[in-house]
Backbone:
């Protein structure tokens, strides 16, 4: 796996989502996705693949309501597997469970798509080597083509034992209400670079990755943030290489008028559509 998710890049580290029933969701994330429980309380579970690093956190608000339609928020979070063989093992496992899924070849990656029991979107993918990506005038070529499922299945016949320890949070894809305002926030505020466009969508990254963050208006232009207690995205983290880099980004956020507050060892901001981000080191 290449070095797009480590220093000096800024990348997504952990995603926190709200669910209706914690125990029901845990069953899915352990037995279908293959995550392990790192910590658990009555209304919260922190999940991992290596036994030490939080990757996904589930929270059940006391007054939780179902996922709201036509709002900003999570389109999907994307779990990046180390190898194509790992994707092979995961695909075979999904087929054996019979869980509904979608699939696509994006040129830069091969991806599987599914929803959790509450409708939170999930992508599980593997990257092609970056040497095989095609760039033109600063933009990387991506598309949605038919996945070579048989070719992937032929990569491995290993037994499924959950997600491998080297699994990362590869990227996050968000619904927003105004693409231009969101793009300005992520570029002029957070320092990301647009690396691809799609109808009503933009893809952004640091360090020449195909995308750490994607934004779209597919739920409609002008959609608002969902209710605080609805199923969906709670927050996600952006990991910075050092305090100096983070301080520079905080100053940029202040300059464009973005909200910024300090917590114990991290800062909180949110994009113009209310998607909350924790800035961590």
Residues:
């Amino acid at each position: 796996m290449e070095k797009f998710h480590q220093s000096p890049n800024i990348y997504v580290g952990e995603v926190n989502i709200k669910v209706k029933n914690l125990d029901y969701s845990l069953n899915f994330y352990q037995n279908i996705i293959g995550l392990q429980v790192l910590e658990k309380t009555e209304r919260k579970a922190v999940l991992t693949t290596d036994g030490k690093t939080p990757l996904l956190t589930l929270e059940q608000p006391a007054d939780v309501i179902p996922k709201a339609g036509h709002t900003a928020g999570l389109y999907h979070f994307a779990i990046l597997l180390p190898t194509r063989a790992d994707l092979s093992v995961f695909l075979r496992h999904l087929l054996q469970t019979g869980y509904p899924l979608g699939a696509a070849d994006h040129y830069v990656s091969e991806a599987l798509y599914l929803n959790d029991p509450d409708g939170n979107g999930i992508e599980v993918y593997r990257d092609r080597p970056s040497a095989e990506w095609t760039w033109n005038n600063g933009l990387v070529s991506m598309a949605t083509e038919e996945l070579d499922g048989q070719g992937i299945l032929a990569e491995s016949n290993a037994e499924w034992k959950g997600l491998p320890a080297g699994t990362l949070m590869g990227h996050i894809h968000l619904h927003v209400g105004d693409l231009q305002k969101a793009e300005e926030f992520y570029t002029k505020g957070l320092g990301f670079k647009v690396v691809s466009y799609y109808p009503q969508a933009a893809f952004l990254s640091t360090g020449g990755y195909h995308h750490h963050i994607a934004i779209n208006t597919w739920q409609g232009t002008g959609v608002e943030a969902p209710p605080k207690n609805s199923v969906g995205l709670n927050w996600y983290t952006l990991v910075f290489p050092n305090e100096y880099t983070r301080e520079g980004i905080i100053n940029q956020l202040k300059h464009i008028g973005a909200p910024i507050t300090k917590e114990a060892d991290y800062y909180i901001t949110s994009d113009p559509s209310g998607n909350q981000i924790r800035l961590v080191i």
